[in-house]
Design a protein that fits this description.
The chain is α+β, with helices and mostly antiparallel strands and 757 residues long. Helices cover 64% and strands 9% of the residues. It starts with a strand and ends with a strand.
């Protein structure tokens, strides 16, 4: 059951703001641009809130949703392919709609202060509105094609925003890198759509689940079709959500303005992949030992891999960038192990503290005159108290310290990973089943190590920036100041969210200690998502095990914070310097980010550049410039001289050409085609008549024949030139042959008698 609602307003309002600012923004002042941009997103947030309230209060069944059909008819019609365009809001995407609109609004407000002196102020906010609108299309689409439109729109907008300061080569290069890497993933996504439509004939989310039988059938290499669709969709998700090996674009995306980094990393683009996996969870649930293990495994490896790189980074925003890559790995482990509510819960809490961390970074860099090297900071806490204490809260949240939001969501993922179980076919080898039995514990162990690294590098960042003595220049120190209210108010709001957001997803083991009415509120998030995603049944474990795992994860994070305090509180200690020298090889490995970018440059970028030079020399210079540009004018000149003689203004000559052309057409269609094309050789052997219709000047490959053997109007279709027919009785029969030329469209027929004995 569904309920109609004008969901289109949620996406139209930001897109309208983008159009107004991009078209007319230069003629308006910054105040008008800010009002349009922020007002459009604020209006969308209010409509989204009303829609979610309607979803919660309407008398709908558990799987009910709000819908909005954008077009009366079909959106795309191509042969048998017919696709409608519509929007829907259910319990799953309602979470993301609220996050995108409200967090985007805070970032827009923050940007009015951060970008105050930017000459291209209107263009920036136009792109920001465009990004928000595209993300909302992605989230609200009722089918994979509509989602894909938003998916590509987000990719375009991110390219424009990351490369906003394109005057510098590194910024333009970062934008291109993000665009190209995402296109690699998008190819897999699009291929998955094609296979899915080929197999089941629909791409609407509400209809895909009813075709699970067809999706379970072998498609290629004896794997179910649903497996290949799931993996290919996940390839797209790997690109958009920066998972190994398609993560390399996200750290470079820091080239854009800080509000862009906050918008991309916190609540929008990078979480799109997590949402798509949760939305199409039934595809992954079909093959838990393959598709789900792939998602969870790549997520765990990415989480630990990026966390280790973050340990040694010196650029403020680069630390946060690798933190985002790592936290996205946590989310994919959540959805990959069937703990969909845990993955989406971490997506929500992460939006608060990660947006706050980036905006806090922007506040610091704003005071430092654009400086981003944390080794040149220190002691900023006394100059920027609001930024410091809000950043303090964000660091506690991302480190997973109780009772901040990150603790509850990260614990839910760790618990889901530890309790997950993957099944294999009964005929699978025993050793394979044994390895799969160990897989959940491997995932959990990798995530615990990643959590320890996260706590360490985030608090290393905090201590190096806000404590100790200032390590910058005297000029920078002289200009240190707290950011204006339009920048600090969003920091405070996000800090409040980082504290309170976790209390709607408290583990049941904790919630049971409270009265039933309170317990229901504390487990609200899982209850809210349950109609949209049905989680896998985890392996139950005792309360003591659950408490033990929770305490262990908390202890590991606390140890990471303690180590960071020992090495960096008050500045860079001599111990930290000694450790860097002692483990120089490991430090160099992490500092160079495992040389992944260099490897890509060696095996992909350089060969492509060489190939492009070869093609340029061979095709462009030799063939086009040396051949076509010289031959072309000669050919054009020849035909021009011929046509000039024909086009001489003599009407009588024109009339002769028309008459001759008409006569030729008439001759071809009435005599030449039927006589030369259809009057071939006829052979009679007893009562079998064979027609060889391929003789004549007309090539038989162009002709399609219909033959009436009995003369009763019962036509036999044929694409062959040799036909035969067995007559039951002797006698004389009138055979009719009709031929149609596929190139010219001419149709002709002929009749002739045939005597059989």
């Amino acid at each position: 059951m569904t309920e109609n609602f004008p969901l289109y307003l949620i996406i139209v309002l930001p897109l309208l703001g983008a159009a107004l600012n991009l078209l007319f923004g230069r003629r308006m002042g910054n105040s008008a641009v800010s009002l349009i941009a922020c007002g459009a997103v604020a209006s969308a947030a209010l409509v989204a809130t009303k829609a979610v309230y309607s979803l919660a209060t309407h008398d709908l069944p558990p799987n009910g949703m709000l819908i909005d059909q954008l077009m009366a008819g079909d959106w795309i019609i191509a042969g048998d392919l017919k696709l409608a365009a519509g929007l829907m809001l259910d319990h799953l995407n309602s979470v993301l709609v609220l996050i995108v609109t409200w967090v985007a609004l805070l970032i827009h407000l923050y940007a009015t202060g951060y970008m105050e002196h930017e000459p291209d102020y209107a263009r920036f906010f136009g792109y920001l509105n465009l990004f928000t609108g595209a993300m909302l299309i992605l989230v609200l689409g009722d089918s994979l094609p509509v989602t894909f439109v938003g998916w590509e729109g987000v990719g375009l907008a991110s390219y424009l925003l990351i490369g906003f300061w394109h005057q510098e080569d590194k910024n333009a290069s970062a934008g291109r890198k993000a665009f190209i890497v995402n296109r690699v993933g998008d190819f897999g996504f699009l291929l998955g759509l094609c296979i899915l439509y080929t197999v089941i004939g629909t791409l609407k989310y509400s209809e895909i689940g009813s075709h699970l039988f067809e999706l379970r059938l072998p498609f290629w290499l004896n794997w179910p079709a649903g497996y290949w669709v799931a993996i290919l969709l996940f390839v797209g998700c790997m690109g958009k959500s920066a998972q190994i090996p398609l993560y390399v674009w996200l750290p470079d995306a820091m080239a854009g303005p800080t509000p862009v980094s906050a918008l991309i990393h916190a609540a929008t683009m990078v979480t799109a992949g997590v949402y798509v996996v949760a939305r199409t969870h039934f595809l992954f649930d079909m093959t838990p030992a393959a598709a789900q293990m792939t998602v969870a495994g790549i997520g765990a490896v990415t989480a630990l891999f990026a966390a280790t790189i973050g340990i040694v980074q010196r650029d403020f925003k680069k630390v946060l960038a690798y933190s985002t890559v790592s936290q996205l790995g946590f989310m994919f482990v959540g959805v990959g192990t069937g703990a969909y509510s845990a993955g989406m819960f971490h997506l929500m809490t992460h939006a608060f503290f990660k947006a706050g961390l980036f905006l806090g970074a922007g506040s610091v860099m704003h005071a430092m005159g654009g400086e981003g090297d944390i080794t040149k900071m220190g002691g900023l806490g006394k100059h920027m108290p609001i930024t410091r204490w809000t950043f303090f809260i964000y660091c506690l949240a991302i480190a997973g310290i109780f009772p901040f939001a990150g603790f509850f969501s990260k614990d839910a993922i760790l618990a889901g990973a530890f309790a997950s179980r993957f099944t294999m076919a009964e005929n699978a080898p025993h050793w394979a089943k044994s390895l799969i039995d160990l897989y959940p514990y491997v995932l959990w162990g990798m995530l615990v190590l990643a959590a320890a690294c996260t706590a360490f590098y985030m608090w290393r960042l905090y201590f190096m920036v806000f404590t100790g003595k200032f390590r910058g220049t005297h000029e920078q120190e002289h200009h240190l100041h707290e950011s204006p209210a339009e920048m600090t108010v969003p920091l405070i709001v996000l800090a409040v969210g980082s504290v309170l957001a976790g209390f709607i997803g408290v583990p049941e083991i904790m919630a049971h200690a409270f009265p039933e009415s309170v317990a229901h509120t504390l487990t609200f998030f899982t209850d809210w998502l349950s109609p949209a995603v049905v989680p896998m049944s985890p392996e139950p474990h005792s309360h003591s095990v659950e408490w033990g795992l929770m305490a262990l994860a908390l202890g590991v994070s606390a140890a990471g914070i303690g180590l960071a305090a020992k090495l960096y509180r008050g500045g860079i200690s001599q111990t930290a310097v000694d450790m860097k020298e002692k483990f120089s090889s490991l430090y160099r490995l992490l500092w160079n980010k495992y040389w992944v970018d260099e490897l890509y440059d060696l095996i992909i970028v350089r060969p492509l550049k060489v190939l492009s030079r070869v093609l340029w020399q061979a095709v462009d210079v030799v063939m086009i410039d040396g051949g076509l540009t010289k031959v072309g004018p000669a050919v054009v000149g020849f035909f021009g001289s011929v046509t000039r003689r024909i086009q001489n203004g003599d009407v009588q000559r024109y009339l002769i050409f028309v008459v001759v052309g008409a006569a030729s057409v008439l001759f071809f269609s009435t005599w030449w085609l039927p006589h030369k094309g259809t009057m071939g050789k006829t052979t009679v052997e007893k009562r079998r008549v064979t027609l060889d219709l391929g003789e004549g000047k007309v090539k038989a490959g162009r002709l399609r024949f219909r033959v009436d053997w009995e003369g009763k109007g019962e036509w036999e279709q044929s694409g062959f030139t040799t036909l035969f027919h067995d007559y039951p009785n002797s006698g004389t029969y009138n055979i009719r042959v009709e031929a149609q030329d596929s190139q010219w469209g001419f149709t002709s027929s002929n009749s002739f008698p045939v005597k059989v004995e």
